[in-house]
Amino acid sequence: MAAIELRNVTKKFATADGGTYTALKDISLTVEDGQFCAVVGPTGCGKSTTLTLISGLESPSAGEAFVDGKPVSGIDTGTGFVFQQDAVFPWKSVLDNVSAGPRFRGADKAAARAQAHDWIRRVGLSGFEDRYPHQLSGGMRKRVALAQTLINRPRVLLMDEPFGALDVQTRSIMSTELLSLWDQTRPAVVFVTHDLEEAIALADKVVVMTAGPGTVKAEFQIDLPRPRVVQEIRFDPRFVATYERIWEALRDEVEQAYARTTAPAGLELEKAMA
Amino acid sequence: MKTGGRTWTRRRRLVIGLQVAVLVVWLGGWELAARTKVIDPFFFSQPSAVWSQILTWTTQGTSQGSLGEQILITLEEAAMGFVIGVVAGVVAGIALGRIRILADVFAPYIKVANSIPRIVLGSLFIVAFGLGLTSKVLLVIVLVFFGVFFNAFQGTREVDRNLMANAKLLGASRWKVTTEVVMPSAFTWILASLHVSFGFAIIGAIVGEFLGSDRGLGNLIKSAQGNFNQSGVLACMVLMAVVALVAEFLITRLERRLLRWRPPQHGDADLAVL
């Protein structure tokens, strides 16, 4: 049984001028238990929308989303979500941020804190327990967000361009660390990104989406050996070959999406989405 | 760093020097104008007369009893009404901000209540509850409540959607989302409203006493006015200004304590001067 399944899902949003905007059109996608799946596609293709549907933050207009074979209805606490923007609580210290999950789920304070200390160590933030988020760098805040999510041991982990705001070096270091953290609990992952290199370096399977309304254009199995070091894997000839193969599929979509943002028709669409 | 520090001190000294100069020119000009009969001291008093009025009251007491007692009574009314008004405003604001149906039902009533000149209720309270403490406290509550309420309501509505989604996904119940996410976030708004609200509290207490009382600073103002004692009116103003400044200082301290988690704001430097 697949950990995550989207079955013929369509998602429409109402626009400000009273029309509807179709973000996803008839998309089907499965992620096996423990599989790391990366979703790539051009800007505005509805990548992030797939995550909100799997997490239960939004519900599909047509079709159905399943987690562990059960249809998603509302937020499921077995699902972890790492947001694109900072979503750690700015008024909580690192320790309180990381222990928030267990506390929300009814663990007593001492047990939650002990668990939090362990996860803070795993993400390499020991010694920063008492800091507030604004006192940390962007990369450190991401580590807090990871620990905060992983402490709940989600069976399904959804990540929405989590490292998008980081500089290139920090980003590849964080990616490597993400892989080793993932290896500890092995949840099924859907990792949304527009960066094909990042997608190949991390994933078992790369899904290429079409320019909006988004649907699956092609899927590629990545059989690069694990454990991987993200900083170095891009020099592997197999990586380069895989990149070329997938880029072939992605290029048209990126060009199409780009043309839309520059042509007058594209401006209309942008407005509709805003 | 050292030169920077020295420049800062020099600049600070200049600012303080100029501030004192403004005060001297203003008070000195007033005193001089009164002594040379450019303005009539009977109508506009003079700083030395105001000061000697304060001294007389301090040493010989007022017609209503000792000066300290009058100040304490007014302060008691203002503080009691302020605390009750703030608590009620915060509770009502958050409740209406979080529970849609309450907001929909009460919205028109609140708009009406906010548009009437509430100070007029003072007359009603005096008749209904007598010359004592109750009528003044009620007037203060009515004045304080709405400012705090609107800020709490707005603050509740403006909470970052990502933070709410994150808390829900981490397992927070609706109540936990309110206490752990909505309230800390709305506190920034609520605390900002306290500065203005305490001013309203003092106005409410004084106007209440003015409308009908046997003690307090408002009563003192009224009897000074009755005796054409303009220095007495101004002396009360000065005393209330001192009380308001002390309260402002305490509120700023409280604000800093509660908002420790925030990165330093640009406005803080200006507040520090105050």
Structure characterization notes:
- Chain A is α/β, with parallel strands linked by helices and 274 residues long.
- Chain A has 2 domains: 4-78 and 156-273, Rossmann fold (3-Layer(aba) Sandwich), CATH 3.40.50.300; 88-153, no CATH class.
- Chain A contains 10 helices and 10 strands.
- A 6-stranded mixed sheet of chain A has the order 6-7-8-3-9-10, sandwiched between helices. In chain A, strands 2-1-4-5 form a 4-stranded antiparallel sheet, with helices on one face.
- In chain A, helix 7 runs antiparallel to helix 9.
- Chain A is globular, with a radius of gyration of 19 Å.
- Chain B has a single domain (63-273), classed as MetI-like fold (Orthogonal Bundle).
- Chain B contains 12 helices and no strands.
- Chain B has helices at 2-35, 41-44, 47-60, 67-98, 100-115, 121-129, 133-157, 161-169, 174-211, 217-226, 230-258, 267-273.
- In chain B, helix 4 runs antiparallel to helix 9 (174-211) and helix 8 packs across helix 9 (174-211).
- Chain B starts with a helix and ends with a helix.
- Mean pLDDT of chain B is 90; it is low at 269-274.
- The interface between A and B is medium-sized, with 26 and 21 residues.
How does the SSE layout of this entry go?
The complex is a heterodimer of chains A (274) and B (274).
Chain A lengths: L3 E11 L5 E12 L4 E5 L6 H9 L6 E6 L2 E2 L7 E4 L11 H5 L1 H5 L4 H14 L15 H13 L5 E5 L7 H18 L2 E6 L2 H7 L2 E5 L6 E6 L8 H4 L3 H26 L1 H10 L1
Parallel strand pairs in A: 3-8, 3-9, 6-7, 7-8
Antiparallel strand pairs in A: 1-2, 1-4, 4-5, 9-10
Chain B lengths: L1 H34 L5 H4 L2 H14 L6 H32 L1 H16 L5 H9 L3 H25 L3 H9 L4 H38 L5 H10 L3 H29 L8 H7 L1
Helix pairs in contact in B: 3-11, 4-5, 4-7, 4-9, 6-7, 7-9, 8-9, 9-10, 9-11, 10-11
